[in-house]
Amino acid sequence: MRNFIKFLLFVCIVSAPGRVFAYTEIVGLLVDDGINSLSRGGMERLPEGRDHLDFQSPLFLDSKGKYRLDTAYENQRTIRIYNGSWAGSHAYAEHLESAIAAPFSLWDGNVSGNVAAGYGYRSFDVKAASVKDDVFVASDEKFNAVKGGLFLKLNDKASLGLSVVDTDYRSAPEIPLTLEISPLESVKVGYKRSYVDVAGDFTVRLSGNDGTVPIHYQENVDELYVSWHYNDIFYAKYANELKHPDNRHFTAKLALPASLYLVGDYVRHYTDFNQDFFVAANPGGYLKGTTAWQQYRIGLGAQLGDHWTVEANYRRGDLAANGGGIANSSSVVSFWPSLVVGNYNHTFNAELKSEQYHLGTEYQGEHFSMGLGCQYLDIRPVAQLDYWRSLLFGLGKTGAGSLKLTTDRIQMLFFSIGLGYRWEHLSVGYAFGQFIPIATHDANEKPVQGSTTTTASGSSGGGTDIFSSIANKINYNPGGNIQRVMLTVTF
To answer: Are 100 and 114 in contact (CB under 8 A)?
Structure first.
């Protein structure tokens, strides 16, 4: 039963959709998309931009009147545990995107734009195995997508982006769309349709019982937004979802004296989920609830001359999930004993809070570009599950209990570097980021007098100084890394 509860807590967290494509890319809550974001420490520039053609936000299919070919690849090795009770556990992900765009012009240049086509590939490989706890969870998924898109611009007064994305995990194609008009030179009003997808089937073994948990979540997001841009002094954008008015996104940038500037960002997103699971091909029960994601960011930057930029940011995120469900005892015992044994009922709540302190710098030259960045991450997970077993058709209950997640704090460092070079028609970029775990805290662990560190469970050795503690944690879990590379050809 304890292992079953541990698995439920695992599913509660990983099934929560956010800004990411699939749960294995939970790192997307901490490190933003794109080579430029990774090279400067994992925080994107504000206001938002793209360094590649983007079919999910089709206004970024604009090739600026040139023929353009993009190829981008990302590799994540974000969890690798070498020893301890969870040795061999890992989380890997790959992402490949290629796109080509061709420009056109109509009616003496009054209407311009381009057509685009592309191909996408994503995969993830996850394994969580513990011989000591008799728990095994694994999933290995691969998804392909074929894409087409159109971008239109009418005399700087209106823009339309439309794409069709045919994926393996949806029965019908996705159709992202953005329509934007400019009633005033400095004001833009728009409508955007986008998609959230979480997909994966998990193989599970708990206490000798094999099962399958399909996690498939799909959501269509429709939102209205307005933006105001006053010269190079002030920018603000506010977006609100139509079906869920509490979901919103706000971004702003303000120029200050002495080449300084302020940036800020706030996002809030709520979702519902309802997941069935199976044991030995039989219905095993369900898990349903809600998730809430909130994040805000504030930063201060400086433009040093024509080429250098330095920026520091603080970002705080809060991912919360709560709900409950039933595990059918009839899936693991015969029918008549299940009437006496009863079903396992459960309610849960889980929360993952994160604080990020970021410092990054960029150099943008005529041909050569470079970025350096670092973050200190303070992550505080909380999870509790209450359970009981119903008896005699649900008329009674027994076996009530409560479990809590014991690890309540994880501290990490993140370092990154990015390099780029531009020729006349060709540009190449590469960025690398590394997570380094430096401390974990167990809520049940009693402090040891005279020791300034806490050794992670499952690691070997003690150590009374910070350097030996960090060495032990890296030996137990060396952290992971992210690599991104992109090739762009324009003519």
So the answer is: no
